[in-house]
Specification:
Strand content of chain B: 15-25%
Helix content of chain B: 25-40%
Distance between the termini of chain B: 18 Å
Number of strands of chain A: 5
Strand content of chain A: 25-35%
Strand order of the largest sheet of chain B: 4-12-13-14
Radius of gyration of chain B: 25 Å
Number of helices of chain B: 12
Order of helices and strands of chain A: EEHHEEE
Radius of gyration of chain A: 12 Å
Number of domains of chain A: 1
Oligomer: heterodimer
Strand order of the largest sheet of chain A: 2-1-5-3-4
CATH class of the largest domain in chain B: Alpha Beta
Largest interface: A-B, 20 and 34 residues
CATH architecture of chain A: Roll
Shape of chain A: globular
Structural class of chain A: alpha+beta
Number of domains of chain B: 2
Number of helices of chain A: 2
Distance between the termini of chain A: 36 Å
Helix content of chain A: 10-25%
Largest sheet of chain A: 5 strands, mixed
Number of strands of chain B: 14
Shape of chain B: elongated
Structural class of chain B: alpha+beta
Chain lengths: 81, 448
């Protein structure tokens, strides 16, 4: 079980929850599980989000392992200049 | 942009709220999200509320330029911090030091910061002689801090050992600020050979593989990291060739100073085999030697910067002259310091343009009146003093040479730094950019 911190604008899709626990062993499984638990998140996740694990913004890696010990945040997709 | 801050009498920030409304043309895409991520990022604030609106309007499309959104957010927040510090009789630099984020603290946008260098940046600012220069009449000093991320992104790099022992490196990130030289230095350092023996070329996708372009302050970080990994592959192969020649186990060979060496006394006594010797014989020892690495590199390192600017405002004309300008920024490790300095200076110059000159001017008919650079005034060399720089080095643990992205942070602090300096010089707080002579005159006459 991992805990995923969402940005506050997503609360309307998660019954008000800012932290959503899901069963997942990888980033990809985590995103899929979020959509299964809260289908309203699908368009947001499909449009692209940044996944931040232990303070580091991942730029790829759906196969990246996640565990209960990781601090995980979703952020709106970070765009560079 | 509306910003509310809670600040104790000692300068400690207690709460913050930002409401930004940004328009970026007729379709969604204004960088309001990035502006909100970055605006409070330098500070540890217990309670934060971000609210952003992406406003659609019949205006030109906006696109990424440098740290998209962050300069605007910094203008709002850093101006208010300056205003509150002055009202409380506090040193604006000390207020920033009091609230500065460091490793292990929660970023304003959620996650926990890894190793960052803001405190070291502020210490270097405090120690800089520019802060001791006495100011004359109509002169003022402004300070501001800014933040930007670092991006990994799809990256492919190849490197090949030549038959003369020189090295060709192929990258897919166009060089817009010295990345080829920096990548060449990293490859040379990894191999232990002179920089002059490494040539870095920017090649096309068909020759190399997919690459994201040069953006997100990523070229030296991402292509550099991939180049180091690719070089490691070639080194392992060269050690294997030496081991075969010496008839010893490849694990008993080590690489240093541009040559394969027996790893120790037990490996046997052999003269080092140089990269030139291995390159010259590679056709007879197993064929070409190269390295290739594809990745979306992790380990990004964000960068904070603080700028200090002294200006003089002519009370008759409202013209602002930039007297001296200081950029202090964390580079992680500056692989090629002159190019890092160039990034700092370029960012500052662009930001100064936004602060003082650059704007779209529309006519009554809604047409843009200044669509070319003859009319859209960007700063030129004669507008600017020499921009002083201090490269702070707090290595990024996620990169083999400690690199952070340095390209974009530099454009973030100039907008508020100059606004704060103009306030210090005139007593007038101007809340709309650019701060043109007309706005200054209007403010000084009590009409704005």
């Amino acid at each position: 079980m991992v805990e995923v911190h969402l940005w506050s604008g997503l609360r309307r899709f998660t019954d008000g929850a800012l932290v959503v626990p899901v069963e997942a062993e990888t980033v990809g499984q985590m995103l899929d599980a979020l959509v299964r638990a809260h289908p309203g998140l699908k368009p947001v996740i499909d449009a692209g989000v940044s996944v931040v694990i232990d303070g580091e913004v991942l730029t790829g890696g759906l196969h990246r392992a996640v565990t209960a010990q990781n601090e995980i945040y979703l952020m709106q997709r970070i765009k560079g200049g | 942009m509306d910003v509310t801050l809670g600040m104790k009498s000692d300068g400690t920030l207690t709460a913050a709220r930002a409401e930004f409304r940004m328009q970026g043309g007729a379709f969604p895409g204004a960088p309001v999200d990035m502006a909100l991520f970055c605006c409070f990022a330098p500070y540890h604030i217990p309670a934060i509320h971000h609210l952003g609106y992406d406003v659609l309007a019949n205006r030109p499309k906006c696109a990424a330029y440098r740290a998209p959104g962050s300069p605007m957010g910094a203008f709002a927040v850093e101006s208010l911090i300056d205003e509150m510090a002055r009202e409380l009789g506090l040193d604006p630099l000390a207020v920033r030091r009091t609230n500065a984020v460091r490793e292990g603290m929660k970023a304003s946008y959620g996650p926990t910061f890894a190793r960052i260098g803001l405190e070291e940046v502020l210490d270097a600012v405090s120690a800089h002689p520019n802060l001791q220069v006495p100011l004359g009449p109509n002169q003022g000093r402004g300070i501001a801090t800014g933040y930007w991320f670092n991006h990994g992104g799809e990256t492919s790099v190849s490197m090949a050992i030549g038959e003369d022992g020189t090295v060709q490196v192929s990258v897919g990130t166009p060089d817009i600020g010295g990345s080829r030289a920096s990548i060449g230095l990293m490859v040379a350092e990894t191999l232990g050979i002179p920089y002059e023996d490494v040539r870095v070329n920017v090649v096309e996708t068909g020759a190399l593989g997919v690459n994201e372009p040069t953006h997100g302050s990523r070229a030296t970080f991402a292509s550099g990291k991939a180049a180091v990994v690719a070089t490691g592959q070639a080194i392992r192969e060269m050690c294997r060739r030496a081991a075969a020649a010496w008839d010893i186990d490849p694990e008993a060979v080590t690489w240093r100073d541009g040559a394969a060496h027996p790893a120790g006394e037990n490996a046997g006594r052999f003269e080092p085999m140089t990269i030139a010797e291995i390159g010259a014989s590679m056709g007879k020892t197993g064929g070409p030697i190269s390295g290739h690495h594809e990745a979306t590199p992790d380990g990004v390192g964000a960068s904070f910067g603080t700028h200090v600017v002294d200006v003089e405002v002519d009370p008759e004309t409202g013209r602002t002259t930039v007297l001296r300008y200081l950029v202090v920024q964390d580079a992680g490790r500056a692989i090629h310091p002159s190019y890092v300095e160039g990034q700092y200076q370029g960012g500052a110059a662009q930001g100064i343009g936004w602060a003082l000159n650059e704007e779209y001017v529309y006519g009554e008919d809604g047409r843009l009146q200044n669509p070319i650079f003859l009319d859209y005034r960007v700063p030129v060399a004669s507008d600017l003093p020499m921009i002083d720089t201090v490269i702070v080095e707090v290595p990024n643990p996620g990169h083999p040479y400690g690199v952070r992205g340095v390209g974009e942070t530099g454009i973030t602090p100039p907008l508020p730094a100059i606004a704060n300096a103009i306030h210090a010089a005139t007593g007038k707080r101007i809340r709309h950019l650019p701060i043109t002579p007309a706005k200054i005159i209007k403010a000084m006459q009590g009409r704005g």
